[in-house]
Amino acid sequence: MGTAPQERRAATLVMACVGVFVAYLPVTTVSASLPAIQRALHASTSQLSWVSDAFVLPMAALILTAGVFGDVHGRKKVYQAGLALSSLGALVALCAQSVQAVWAGQALAGLGSAALLPTTLALISHAVPDPRERGRFIGLWATSLTAALALGPVIAGTVLDHFAWRWIYLLALPASLLAMAFAAKLLTDSRAPGTRRLDWPGQITAAPAITALVYGIIEGGAESFTDVKVMVALSTAAVAAVGFVLVERRSSSPMLDLTLFRSPAFTATTLIAMISFLGLIGFFFALSLYFGMVQRLSTLDAAWRLLMVTSVPLLLGAPVGRLVHRVSPRVLIPGGLLVTTAALLTLTDLGAHTSFGSMAWRLALLGLGLAFVITPMTATAVSAVPFHQASMAAAGNNAFRQVGAALGPAVLGALLSTKAVDALPGHLTDAGLTGRTVEQVRTVAEHGGIGAVAGVDLGADTPRVLGALSEAFLDGLHLCLIVSAVLTLLAAALGALMLRRPRHTAPPAGAGPRQEVPAPRHGGATSLAGNAAER
């Protein structure tokens, strides 16, 4: 098929950009609103972790299946279904009267995002079959994704300065519904050729493995890792993971071909993707609570600080993308990870009264390091495998990145809560509080989490209790930053040892473009999925 008409390509690009913006807007919009949600719904720290993870878990568990479903049944249909689920999730959360209802809305929105991420790229690939020309369109798509992450906190802050927390979900409703209406008229459907089919055994084993793992980590951190339900969850995750490996090895149409991991570069970039998003999303979770519970900032004031991290990758995405073809990933990715490690370590002296000016350059430095990691990561993964496996390599990299994003609030939230609760009695004593007051606060913290302590009224002792709570929280935050720095440093070492310059694989000689219905290149969109998502 020849190139689509200019107006059709432009419409496809706009629809794809709107779709990915809707898909990623809840990530930082909700993260920035966590303190407000916690206060309004009296949520514990572990319950608050599930507000973020209820969105990311379905996205991580179903992103591979959603891409295959679009290839088999039509990408336009999956795109519209994703928008419908996103709007439904926003509506449920908008009307929520409990934290459990927020979880339900977040989960529905996560399902929508799982459908939108691979499908928006596939639609672009169908409209622009020339890989070189397609790069410009993918760059704009990637900018929309990063813009959603960057603008989310500002949108949340603006809303929360004037309205209740639930109205942060309002924007997704008209955006989704309008996109659905325009897509019905403007988008052309497409499918992948060949005999590819849905891998139900792989999906049935992958989803429980991811969900049980994150559940076990969240509940283990909130209670105890020796608790029966936690041990059952972690055992279930291990059994399901083994089952996934076994069924994928035997599948004639696997969701994730495990032979990809024979490539050291693919393995390295996949692990780096998971670790970096674990740290990034977990960092947003912990930092949002710090701004709300310790510095007691408004959501908008907190948003400007978070923007210092997210705006740098947004501004540097295109320049760093050009460096991918000139600088070895063995230098680029580990170098970015080392900068990220340094930035995390500089933040370990954050205090209750640290100024914006003192913090801004360190947050910007963190964003700079992430810009040099996020942009080239999946491009390296895709170039490390044979051409016919490029689509699966990018989809796998995306899936592991979302697993890291799901684990971030779980792991860092558990560390933060455990350390803060353990440190709180000592800080209460240092503040001159003794006896019954200390025991009462400690009991509230152990049963309701550190957030519950902020709502306890102890009369004249309340200011000292809040001061002790801030110090205990900072102990937990500093531990999270050190752990994140160590993980990032390990990822840098992994990259330095295993990465090589991309081979820029091309189709086999004489293969030519494969025909689709109507005619996109097989795997072309998905092979670009991770690359674009990283920019």
From TrEMBL:
GO terms for molecular function: transmembrane transporter activity. It is a multi-pass membrane protein. Keywords: Antibiotic resistance, Membrane, Transmembrane, Transmembrane helix, Transport. The keyword Zinc does not apply. Its main location: membrane. One of its GO terms (biological process) is response to antibiotic. GO terms for cellular component: plasma membrane. It is found in: Cell membrane. CDD domains: MFS_MMR_MDR_like (cd17321). SUPFAM superfamilies: MFS general substrate transporter. Residues 505-535 are annotated as: Disordered. The chain crosses the membrane at residues 12-37, 49-69, 81-103, 109-128, 140-160, 166-188, 200-218, 230-247, 268-291, 303-324, 331-348, 360-387, 399-418, 476-499. Pfam families: MFS_1. Residues 12-503 form the Major facilitator superfamily (MFS) profile domain. This is Major facilitator superfamily (MFS) profile domain-containing protein. It comes from Streptomyces diastatochromogenes.
